[in-house]
Amino acid sequence: MDRYQTVTSSEIAPVAGAAIGAALRQPHPQGLDPGHPGHAQAAQDAAASVAPVRRAATGEGEDAHEALAFLGQRYSMGPKYLGFPAPSPQELRRAVAIALRAPDHQQLRPFRFVRVGDAQRERLAGLFAHDAARRGHCATEVERARQRAYNGPALLAVLGRVRPNVEDVPEHEQWACIGAGMMNLLNALHLMGYGAKILSGASVRDPDIQAAFCRTGETLVSWILAGTPTCAARPKQPDDVQAALSDWIESEPQAPGEHT
Ligand SMILES: Cc1cc2nc3c(=O)[nH]c(=O)nc-3n(C[C@H](O)[C@H](O)[C@H](O)COP(=O)(O)O)c2cc1C
């Protein structure tokens, strides 16, 4: 079978989702707190768990093929379609360990995630409502903004720290790392059988909300909502791999700014 052949989610997702999700949802023997001395071992264990994905590159193993096909069926799931259970704190730590495998030039670690606990939703709701009111929204909209703090059975804030003037690591590389970290996190959650979505909205630009989450030099990039999908995910539009991957045609003129 052509490794790049399209596989529909209805064919693959339930099978791969069950097998891969079950394997990856198992509790991890050690905490994955990056500060913990067992972190290196834990990261190795996590890598071993996703070995099937690596084997797929060489065509070994049916489970590996399923894992790749399943990854190709990751779609964002909005809060309306996210139910309980939420990923546990342990599962979130494991997903963040995968996020930290994002390519990171000079290991600047330009991102981190902050989990908003259930008991903290009310405080966040107040901040969201205050932001909406500050922007002049009507009472109905303010209430809608307040309720958004309760969206997503698990809720993470994504903090980016892009350092200016780092030799050899321009800011766009650091932003690329942040994006890769978020993507790795989404893929890890997907492989565990959870749905997730990155959302930003005006709330990330509110100074009080930023102050509540950001350390010096950090940007509140977005929120990540995660939970158990309550329906099948659907692509918003078909992907065009041909447009995204082509052979270099040397004679083809490049637009200004596209020269390397
Ligand atoms: C940093 C960031 C912020 C985003 N913020 C929003 C948002 O506020 N609202 C929204 O509808 N989509 C937002 N998106 C896009 C969605 O997360 C999602 O990628 C998009 O709906 C496409 O769905 P897909 O991931 O299934 O292709 C954001 C994406 C990124 C990377």
Can you characterise this structure?
There is one protein chain. The protein has about 260 residues and is of the alpha+beta class. The chain has 2 domains: about 5-75, no CATH class; about 75-230, 3-Layer(aba) Sandwich (NADH Oxidase). It has helices at about 10-25, 40-50, 50-55, 60-70, 90-100, 120-135, 140-150, 170-190, 205-215, 240-245, and strands spanning about 80-85, 110-115, 155-160, 195-200, 220-230. The radius of gyration is 20 Å and the shape is globular. The model is unreliable at about 1-20, about 25-40 and about 50-55 (pLDDT under 50). The chain binds flavin mononucleotide.
Element pattern in H and E: HHHHEHEHHEHEHEH
Q: Please state the overall shape, judged from the principal axes of the Cα atoms.
A: globular
Q: CATH homologous superfamily of the largest domain?
A: NADH Oxidase
β-sheet strand percentage: 5-15%
The major β-sheet equals: 5 strands, antiparallel
* Number of DSSP-assigned strands: 5
Any idea of the CATH class of the largest domain?
Alpha Beta
Tell me the radius of gyration: 20 Å
